Amino acid sequence: QVQLVESGGGLVQAGDSLRLSCAASGRSSSSYPMGWFRQAPGKEREFVAAISYSASSTRYTDSVKGRFTISRDSAKNTMYLQMNSLKPEDTAVYYCAADRNLRALPSFLFTQYDYWGQGTQVTVSS
To answer: Which of the four pLDDT bands, split at 50, 70 and 90, describes residue 30?
Structure first.
């Protein structure tokens, strides 16, 4: 079993930056591909970014490319999402997730992730 705990959310103004963290614990958690998803009120959960277990592969949804950076520190068993130039449309609850299947390219499908954190709120005011 893997436990995931997000932190780092908050209320910021448009153009500001935030860094989200996802601390993982449990068996083999450092070897899983991981991802960030978000869900705004009244909307479906959407993919944000994902990273392979080795950090050699990353992928992003188009709306965050060039503004968000996903990374991981295997020694700390922690994944990060650096969010720059935040926009009001980035407002959502952000979830981290882990995929127990070793994929060459991390998935963008939330149905392929097996473990989820409780979420952290990010609110961007205009």
So the answer is: confident
